[in-house]
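A reminder from the course coordinator: this example appears on the midterm review sheet, so study it carefully.

Given structure:
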């Protein structure tokens, strides 16, 4: 009983130990907040990466792709049809997009993706990322509305002209030149210009405007091909890499422009996006697909899961989080050294008291237990309060961000970077448990050496040296 009474007394009266408690508290709280925010960002990023890509992607080595996509998909369906929910053939390549404004022409490097909107929407979250100019979600479509043409300069003149006018047909043709027949869904960051501090972004290519896309043709002799498109929507996934590069166009028109039509109403594709059914292991599915199609054209197809395709990015985030955890854990380690120093001071100061306790019959284990229990008490108080403060901070982190923004006069968290409306957080119980457990372990470990030294004191020598 005396061990617990002394631990409680030291905890209440030794105010120098408060420094160690605060160090443990700050370390635990900081690690919980940082891990929750980083886990939230990582989860959001993974969700959006996965939303853009299907579970499994079949690609060809050549950008020209392969003509027999129906045969390939039939082979995939035969090998793993009970595990597949949807498939979508796709044509991807790089090119140049020209945004034509009244004052200038803006050229941007882009990733051109030829799709069928209905099929692509079934293999991922593509439909959730398509918005209009007001930020409202719209149905993905390449259909060019007549309202776009009526709002164009030539379209406005056409509405006021008599159909019998000799210039009516010429003006109608001019309207079709200003607003092409084929639509394109353009990355939001491609079509807009963001000014810091502005409430709204400036649209360089609003809906209905004309963009010209230049890309390489297929075949051995590569030439530049062009296609004119009207903007029918904006792709905003929240990942700047995609929102500043992706342009979605009708796959049939892209095949036609590149000379990849097969003469049967279809054409070549260089990707097949595959969505697995719920509960299916995508790594196993990927291996099944690879074994099924590889004999068709050996060394031609590349089959990867979305995680494998984005492996370097996901690995970089994981490494960054691990390194940050190691650095932050040094804060708690500093608290451990503080506990070690304080306990040595207590052992020196209380040498006579330790001698009296031993003379009265206190055992070596009992003396050791006093200091180990004291170290555990410091760790419990510091880690417990730190956990409570950390979780409370995570819960109100967006309120804190708004308060700091108003206090400093500028946004602490700029939502224009990631297009998140608020700071994403994810509290993982296992992570909180190992942070608290690690803090307790350091606190107890720091008290082992002083406790062992106190336990080895001989009562006669302890009283003589006083």
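Designed residues:
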């Amino acid at each position: 009983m005396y061990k617990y009474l002394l631990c409680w007394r030291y905890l209440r009266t030794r105010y120098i130990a408060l420094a160690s408690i605060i160090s443990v508290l700050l370390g635990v709280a900081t690690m919980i907040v940082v891990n929750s925010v980083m886990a939230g960002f990582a989860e959001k990023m993974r969700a959006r990466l996965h939303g853009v890509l299907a579970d499994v992607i079949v690609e060809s080595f050549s950008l020209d792709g392969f003509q027999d996509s129906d045969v390939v998909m039939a082979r995939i369906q035969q090998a793993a049809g009970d595990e597949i929910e949807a498939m979508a053939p796709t044509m991807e390549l790089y090119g140049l997009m020209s945004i034509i404004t009244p004052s200038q022409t803006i050229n941007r490097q882009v990733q051109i993706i030829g799709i069928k909107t209905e099929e692509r929407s079934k293999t991922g979250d593509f439909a959730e990322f398509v918005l209009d100019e007001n930020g409202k979600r719209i149905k993905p479509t390449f259909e060019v509305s007549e309202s776009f043409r009526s709002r164009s300069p030539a379209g406005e003149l056409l509405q006021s002209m008599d159909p019998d006018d000799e210039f009516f047909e010429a003006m109608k043709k001019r309207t079709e030149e200003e607003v092409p027949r084929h639509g394109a869904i353009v990355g939001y960051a491609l079509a807009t210009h963001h000014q810091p501090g502005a409430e709204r972004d400036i649209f360089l290519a609003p809906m209905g405007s004309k963009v010209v896309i230049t890309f390489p043709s297929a075949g051995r002799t590569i030439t530049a091909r062009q296609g004119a498109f009207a903007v029918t929507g904006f792709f905003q996934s929240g990942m700047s890499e995609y929102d500043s590069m992706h342009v979605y166009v009708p796959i049939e028109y892209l095949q036609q422009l590149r000379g990849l039509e097969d003469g049967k109403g279809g054409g070549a594709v260089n990707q097949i996006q595959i969505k697995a059914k719920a509960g299916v292991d995508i790594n196993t599915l990927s291996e099944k697909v690879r074994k099924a199609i590889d004999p068709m054209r050996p060394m031609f197809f590349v089959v990867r899961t979305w995680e494998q395709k984005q492996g370097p990015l996901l690995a970089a985030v994981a490494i960054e989080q691990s390194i940050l955890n190691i650095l932050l854990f040094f804060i708690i380690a500093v608290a451990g050294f503080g506990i070690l120093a304080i306990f040595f001071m207590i052992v020196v100061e209380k040498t006579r008291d330790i001698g009296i306790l031993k003379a009265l019959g206190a055992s070596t284990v009992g003396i050791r237990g006093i200091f180990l229990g004291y170290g555990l008490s410091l760790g419990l108080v510091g880690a417990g309060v730190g956990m409570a403060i950390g979780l409370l901070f995570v819960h109100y982190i967006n309120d804190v961000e708004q308060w700091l923004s108003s206090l400093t006069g500028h946004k602490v968290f700029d939502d224009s970077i990631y297009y998140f409306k608020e700071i994403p957080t994810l509290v993982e119980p296992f992570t909180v448990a190992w942070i608290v457990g690690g803090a307790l372990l350091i606190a107890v470990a720091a008290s082992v050496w002083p406790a062992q030294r106190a336990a080895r004191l001989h009562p006669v020598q302890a009283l003589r040296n006083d």
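The radius of gyration is 33 Å. Residues 320 and 332 are 19 Å apart (CA to CA).
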